[in-house]
Amino acid sequence: MPPSISSLTDRTPQMSGEELAASLVPPRQFEQVTLDNYRPDPDFPSQAEALEAARAFVAPRQSAGLFSRKKAPAAKPGLYLDGGFGVGKTHLLAALWKLAPGRKYFGTFIEYTALVGALGFAGASALLKGASLIAIDEFELDDPGDTMVMTRLLGELAEGGTRIAATSNTPPNALGEGRFAAADFLREIHALSARFDIVRIDGLDYRRRDIEGHARTFDGAEYAEELARAEGPATDDEFDAVLRHLSRVHPSRYVRLVEGLDVIGLRDVRTLHDQSDALRFVALVDRIYDAQVPVVSTGVPLDQVFGEEMLGGGYRKKYLRAVSRLIALTTGTD
What we know:
By secondary structure, the protein is an alpha/beta fold. The protein has twelve helices and nine strands.
């Protein structure tokens, strides 16, 4: 039986605050991760050191219960895992999240800023208040507004006893470098940095170790054949139509755009030159990757979707992470 092929542009998801909160859990590919099944690369000793740091984040509180708020006053409330793409940071973060008791949240930095955008600062703060752990994957500060909002939000939560674990590709004392005139925001950046114990993780991107390093693209006939092989619901859209649709859907709801899909098809992919389009596409790629939905496409290979001027700008690391994920999604590499 042929698959059900529809359009992403026909999906206009709505989500309540409770539904947004319920979506803040680790992606399904991390459902089985634990600290015990993290396998450090022996060629990079910092990975074993990061594992021990994660254990230490838990161990001092075992006598009072994991992640107990009855911690010593001098203890920092946060653990910050800094490293490149695909070195196991999210594995460790998801494992820590699983160990936390009670109400807890796991999301990317983009998801948390989208939550604030959808609910307002007060609404997001009230929703997250009292959680045992806030886990933030790919922590990045891309503009002054995000700097102030996230610093204030995490500060309030930490003061209320919530613990914070985060991953990033940029050390906290470098947040904002090369992205905006940080002079007016140094106080906020430094205050945020002071809340974390910082651990560096080196290594190779596991998504690119065994592949050529390029996203796969198809001609028209091959593209149609790939969609026809889908075992479940698939979507077929022109790339530009998807970009227009993303501008009309709040990023906090992108998770519902890809929900339940078996394959996503994008026709006539082109190189992006508009920053807003590019950042929204990054947010969509994150949700597609979390859901592990394969992508087939025609046109420009998806690892070339971000123009050179973008890769040389302040969002470089965000775009490179998306490229890494797009290679995995188009080649079937985990």
